């Protein structure tokens, strides 16, 4: 055990790992999805459950994923198998990695459709198409985009190609460069937007909506969505962080690193919410508008502020980059597996996988037009894939990873990687053995058997 490096290479330093993992974590989940699901689930109480899930379930599981990857220095399937063997368990644990790779493929197929919307909005902002739109006009423009499969296909294809190119280029050249400059820039622009939101007159209402905890509002379904989102937003439960961990240097502290990533991800989501909801309320729009929320509210905001065209363009460019660095990380575990297990060339593996996810994406973009009557359990393909991956597959992956790290891997091996003080290690261990799996199981149980 304890291989020195992965055959894929390694991050230049602890900071590069933080950047890359943050690049994976911060994405459409934070800026697009978090605000709209908060809106759909009534605000405050949902936000509180989400924060609790990040802290109590997400962070400890992220530590587990990083150490599993770093100890084995292999793709998630082989990492889980090797670590199981080292602790005298069965290699069958690798199956969690298989499920994770499937999740990655399914998530990518709708993720890149939304990535495509973002690319479309960059151009719409740049050309001034959206200047001074009213909220109704912005809603119509978004509706018109969704109704047009060829436009959607074009953008989805471009987004898929951009992603495949970087994955094919490998971890150092591709992923690092994109993250280093763009992440800080995205943050600065979010603050600018937040500043604007404060001037809209809707800020108090927006704040109240997000931080006023009314537990009467909370349903098991909302709790499940909050839990599922904590996995989605931190890129957990599917092997991404394991794969990235396998490129991490040995001397870096896993605990501190993971806390930094979790904090950055959470702050971006909260600031995005605080930038969007005031605009919604100030313009009398509906916070529960669903997936179009950001695409309808922000053009209105940019249309009204000085230099809105410039800021609007920049903003969508940065959201595009955030989506891009996340999309890359959805494919990385599977590409690493194909390269290591079947000795494929990275470029062949990337293109092959890319074609599969691109084709699946067509079914997702068709959900809004030519395939709108195809439904699974009452949801269109796009919503269905979003729902089962984030709310079922990732939490299930999370339970299994926690049980694996807590019960299968011997404490001495875990502690050898994590290097925590003995109290913190005990807390982490209890969370892996009991708290995290039980919490996830309860939420899943009540989803299947709702209370009256
Ligand atoms: N965390 C990413 C986001 O919030 C999405 C993602 C999920 C990426 C799972 C990789 C793995 O947008």
Automatic annotation (TrEMBL):
Transmembrane segments: 12-32, 44-68, 101-123, 152-171, 183-204, 224-245, 257-281, 314-339, 351-368, 388-409, 430-448
One Pfam family from the record: SNF
Membrane-topology annotation of the record: Multi-pass membrane protein
GO MF assignments: symporter activity
The entry's keywords: Membrane, Symport, Transmembrane, Transmembrane helix, Transport
Family: Belongs to the sodium:neurotransmitter symporter (SNF) (TC 2.A.22) family.
Protein name stated in the entry: Transporter
Species for this entry: Marinomonas profundi
